[in-house]
Amino acid sequence: MTESPVTVTLFEIPKEGIFERMPIGYHVNEWKVHLLDDQQNIVSNEEVGEICISGAGLARSYSNQPELTEKKFIKNPFEKGRLYRSGDIGRFLATGELMYMGRKDNQVQIRGFRVEIEEVEAALLLFPDIQKAAVIASGEEKFKRLLAYIEPTKDSINTQRTMTANIKKYLLKKTSLIYDP
């Protein structure tokens, strides 16, 4: 499921020109892109803000996730309807084009899947022999992977190899987080 159609913005790549970073373009047709600060005010041109989308094709909610729906799909303070708070940050260039600047949170993309780092850490902390966990994304594009750093409990008697195997088995039973090609 997606929150909005894939094509909310478009950018026509000129035949000539060098871009350090490619803009993601202008909003398309009935779609509007707003850049908001944390108080839901529109930011000034060339200032960074959260990319929020409004338009007729916006999803209504996240399935069976009312808290996330309430956080991400908000009443549009500028016109009738709702806004989707994407978690992406960007800024409008002086030319009016939207430039993607990154994420507001720790969500990462791995082989096309959106992964919330905090959710992976929380799942690791469910394992009885782990007292601390930290997860990072490492690598580029198709080589990007999650790396988990853990601190075992003082009572743990597992070797590193046994611990790794046991954690994978445990998480496979509890979640769909493990993909190990």
What can you tell me about this protein's structure?
By secondary structure, the chain is of the alpha+beta class. Strands 3, 4, 5, 6 and 7 form a five-stranded antiparallel beta sheet that branches. Strands 1-2 form a two-stranded antiparallel sheet. It contains three helices and eleven strands; from the N terminus they run ββββαβββββαββα. The longest helix is centred in the C-terminal third of the chain and has 15 residues, at 160-174. The chain has two domains: 9-103, Luciferase, Domain 3 (Luciferase, domain 3, Roll), CATH 2.30.38; 107-174, GMP Synthetase, Chain A, domain 3, CATH 3.30.300.
Whole-number total of structural domains? 2
CATH topology name of the largest domain: Luciferase, domain 3
Q: Would you tell me the structural class of the helices and strands? A: alpha+beta
The CATH class name of the largest domain reads: Mainly Beta
Tell me the CATH superfamily of the largest domain: Luciferase, Domain 3
| Overall mean pLDDT | 83
Characterize the largest beta sheet: strand count, sense, and whether it forms a barrel.
5 strands, antiparallel
| Assigned CATH architecture of the largest domain | Roll
The sequence of SSEs as H and E is: EEEEHEEEEEHEEH
Cα separation of the termini: 25 Å
Protein topology:
Elements: E1 9-10, E2 26-27, E3 32-36, E4 49-54, H1 66-72, E5 73-75, E6 82-92, E7 98-103, E8 107-110, E9 113-116, H2 117-125, E10 130-138, E11 145-152, H3 160-174
Antiparallel strand pairs: 1-2, 3-4, 4-6, 5-6, 6-7, 8-9, 10-11
